[in-house]
Each structure stands twice: as structure tokens, then as C-alpha cells.
Amino acid sequence: MALALVSGDQPSEKDNWDNGRLARKQQLLTEIVLRNMMITLVVDGIMTHRVLVQGLLRSYGVQTLGVDNDRDAVDLIAFGVKFDLIIIEKILPVLNGLDASNKADS
């Protein structure tokens, strides 16, 4: 059953404020992620933040893994787990984000 707009319910200019650019960007991001099967590591000491970021990424088809401290993230990388993107909170309980990035590079 298709819904049709009644003549008085036409979309206004406010409904199309970005001329469809945001929807197109979302579509392109989804296509890129699905084509490349992106894997992301989310490092955040606050579980709520971590879950929200992972949920947003998963809604675009990104596979995610979340840890609550930088030491665990560095250990994963040291064991050879490969990530396409790593999102690290700057201030964490064990190491800060910059220190963890430096350790992961070495």
C-alpha cells in the first residue's frame, strides 16, 4: 500500500534544506563501507559513549570492536589484529590517546 501526499501536505523547502546532499553523503558512505568491509576499533572509557559510537558506525555497515582502555587497544594491535579506522578518546584511565597511538605505531 503506497502512501500519497494530500494536496495540502506537500513537502516544504524546509524539508529539503540541503537539497538531498546529506542523504547522498550517507549513501556514498554506506557504499564505501560495504565495498571495503571496514573494521573499526572504538576506544572509550565511558561505556555509553562507546556503545553510541559503535551503534552509529554499525548503522552504516561498519564492523566494530570496542575496548575501554588504550592498553587493550595496543595489545590487540600488537597481536596483529588489523583495523581500518581507530577512534580513540583523548583522555583514558590507563594511557592517553596520544601515548597509545605512539605505542601502536612502534
Automatic annotation (TrEMBL):
UniProt cross-references to Gene3D superfamilies, sorted A to Z: 3.40.50.2300
Domain of life where this protein originates: Eukaryota
SUPFAM superfamilies given in the database record: CheY-like
Database matches in PROSITE patterns: RESPONSE_REGULATORY
Alphabetical GO biological process terms: phosphorelay signal transduction system
Residues of the Response regulatory domain: 39-106
Classification via InterPro entries: CheY-like_superfamily, Sig_transdc_resp-reg_receiver
Protein name: Response regulatory domain-containing protein
Organism, scientific name: Gossypium klotzschianum
Lineage summary: Eukaryota, Viridiplantae, Streptophyta, Embryophyta, Tracheophyta
